Amino acid sequence: MSNFDSALTRLLNISHPVVLAPMGGAAGGRLAAAVSRAGGLGLVGASYGDPDWMKTELALMSDVEEPWGVGLVMFTVAKRFELLDLALSYGPDVVALSFGDARPFIAPIKDSGALAIVQVHDVDQALAALDAGADALIVQGAEAGGHSLRRASLPLLPAVRDAVGEDAVLIAAGGIADGRGLAAALLLGADGAMLGTRFLASDEALPSAKVKQRLLQATAGDLVRTRAFDLVRGIEWPEQYSGRALANDFTARWVGFEQELVRAPASVAEDYAQALREDNTDVRAIWTGEVADLINDVLPAATIVEQTVRGAEQALRVAGRRFA
């Protein structure tokens, strides 16, 4: 059992201050359930909101007695509000919102009895989310896999803590893959940590063994930031956001030539869609954070939770002895 008792564990009624990032296409019901049952908070990554996918994965949470939640991308749900209604119909304890204006969503979430947690990337976003009524904030640094802004976690987290005060509940995200990262986040002012890329290399994550093996072979030097994967999929991401992914043949062709991709013939998007169906890792996006160097094995999600918590406890004990 974890020795950690934080504002996050008390708010969510969970044992460990560890949260699964709601990674689209990766964090399905099986993974979210495993994290919640291990004492963390599992979040199903509904992402852009495919209703059929949501129904399949959220149905897997029906017998999970521990707190769990669902993650949604706000700029998509703002156009299709019924996706929020669908998510809430499964009775999540938490809805995690990212990339957009949280104000239209807070009241419906709270009216359902769930908590609203909002991901932010700078101090202004943090203040706005709390003003909108967020119960907690996910403070995401640019080290994260997938989409983010440009501020790194190390200066961002204490800056947000200073701005929002001690009462706000903060979850650190971006650049955390083990207990050392969790310990550092707690010392910087977080009440817990969200892990994404580390859980991508879990038994329960949805991507194939081929994708996971590609991740295990990667280092931070193999990553690129680009909008190319969004452009080829026709997803209208806000312009200030780009995504961090593993470099491959697709990025070698299009990174730096994104404007050409905008004007590319429809066959390019069709080829990319075919690559997704074939799980062609030389073409498809594998969203990966800078923690790629730290991930060397695929483990059960429960083991990852346990190792992260034990590692944080050990890291804090070692630091205490070193600087006592």
From TrEMBL:
GO terms for molecular function: enoyl-[acyl-carrier-protein] reductase (NADH) activity; nitronate monooxygenase activity. Coiled coil: none annotated. Its EC number is 1.3.1.9. The keyword Plastid does not apply. Pfam families: NMO (PF03060). The keyword Hydrolase does not apply. InterPro entries: Aldolase_TIM (IPR013785), NMO (IPR004136). It comes from the Bacteria. SUPFAM superfamilies: Inosine monophosphate dehydrogenase (IMPDH). Keywords: Flavoprotein, FMN, Oxidoreductase. This is Enoyl-ACP reductase (FMN). The lineage of its organism: Bacteria, Pseudomonadati, Pseudomonadota, Gammaproteobacteria, Pseudomonadales.
